[in-house]
């Protein structure tokens, strides 16, 4: 990835500003330790310890005001993450021909890939994707009346030999954190803790190992172009090389997220925006690169089952005071359409939840 192909070059208005020191210190940092010492959020009420009540309010404010927050004391063993980061680096250090032995394609979008596009511009990165539940089922086609499905299976490289075991162990640990966060978000909306859990019975969640090599022209390219996450929640682990930028809701300014050791960066996805009927918003973000250091990150994309129809939750809709702001849509079809766009440059804008917005 030494030569800069024109496919990487962003339009002038979307190119990053190469400045230092502008970090999003205002992004909430939330301590989840009260959750770890609590037996369960089931039966949550005002009789819960004050620490739990305060935690729910912190989650509410973070989702409403930022759409992003960071968590510490989250319960995921740091040593497990460290070992997975080491194995990920060993994999990406392999010769290209070795990595391409597990290359993903349109038939099975799992495995290694180095030509992904965001907003029809190629990203300066290489990735390795695997699903949390193996196998995972998604729609075979995008046609609304086609109910056939296809099966996605993880594919694993021969080396590093421990990569599969580490990925599977890590996925279970982060999945537990994702459900805890989902329960807190549900409570923050005034719903029972486990109101949203059944949507994830046959989840389409996946984890990505990201590698962003040094870029000779960081002022022209992006590691990942501006986008919003299509799923419910994203739980991101990153190294100490900064790069994630969030578009601040108050003024539209791109703000660098400060990396905090042993923390996770959480963002609300499009599905929670729709479920909450716009009480919470999925926020645009991107990844900038630099010319000196490589960067690694590991996002967990928490997604419901392919057969779920996504629409505002009935408890949060009132036909007179708060009517539904979105028409329902098929998550499986939406997910498949977004996956397809990763493989080719489209002639039209990618599918967005705004396509299902109901005019006022």
From TrEMBL:
Domain Fe2OG dioxygenase stretches: 203-304
Residue ranges crossing the lipid bilayer per the database entry: none
Key words, A-Z: Iron, Metal-binding, Oxidoreductase
Signal sequence annotation: none
GO molecular function: dioxygenase activity; metal ion binding
PANTHER family: 2OG-FE(II) OXYGENASE FAMILY, PUTATIVE (AFU_ORTHOLOGUE AFUA_2G00750)-RELATED, OXIDOREDUCTASE, 2OG-FE II OXYGENASE FAMILY PROTEIN
Assigned protein family: Belongs to the iron/ascorbate-dependent oxidoreductase family.
Protein name: Fe2OG dioxygenase domain-containing protein
Organism: Protea cynaroides
């Amino acid at each position: 990835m030494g030569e800069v192909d024109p496919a990487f070059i962003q339009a002038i208005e979307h190119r990053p500003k190469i400045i230092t020191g502008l970090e999003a210190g205002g992004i909430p940092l939330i301590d989840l330790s009260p959750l770890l010492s609590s037996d369960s959020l089931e039966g949550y009420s005002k009789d819960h310890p004050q620490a739990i009540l305060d935690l729910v309010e912190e989650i509410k404010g973070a989702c409403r005001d930022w759409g992003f927050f960071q968590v510490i004391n989250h319960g995921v063993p740091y040593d497990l993450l460290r070992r997975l980061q080491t194995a990920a680096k060993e994999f990406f250090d392999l010769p290209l021909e070795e990595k391409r032995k597990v290359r993903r394609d349109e038939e099975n979008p799992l495995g290694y890939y180095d030509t992904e596009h965001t907003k029809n511009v190629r990203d300066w990165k290489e990735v390795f994707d695997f699903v949390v539940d193996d196998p995972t089922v998604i729609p075979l086609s995008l046609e609304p009346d086609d109910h056939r499905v296809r099966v996605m299976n993880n594919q694993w490289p021969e080396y590093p030999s421990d990569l599969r075991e580490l990925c599977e162990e890590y996925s279970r640990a982060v999945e537990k954190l994702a459900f805890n966060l989902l329960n807190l978000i549900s409570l923050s909306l005034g719903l029972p803790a486990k109101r949203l859990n059944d949507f994830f019975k046959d989840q389409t969640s996946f984890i990505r190992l990201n590698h962003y090599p040094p870029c000779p022209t960081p002022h022209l390219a992006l590691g990942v172009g501006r986008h919003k996450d299509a799923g419910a929640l994203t739980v991101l682990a990153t190294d100490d090389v900064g790069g994630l930028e969030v578009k601040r809701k108050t003024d539209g300014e791109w703000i660098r997220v400060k990396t905090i050791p042993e923390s996770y960066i959480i963002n609300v996805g499009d599905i929670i925006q729709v479920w909450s009927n716009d009480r919470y918003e999925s926020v645009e973000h991107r990844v900038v690169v630099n010319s000196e250091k490589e960067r690694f990150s590991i996002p967990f994309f928490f997604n419901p089952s392919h057969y779920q129809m996504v629409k505002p939750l009935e408890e949060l809709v009132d036909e007179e005071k708060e009517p539904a702001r979105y028409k329902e849509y098929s998550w499986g079809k939406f997910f498949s359409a977004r996956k397809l766009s990763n493989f080719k440059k489209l002639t039209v804008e990618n599918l967005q939840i705004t396509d299902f917005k109901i005019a006022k």
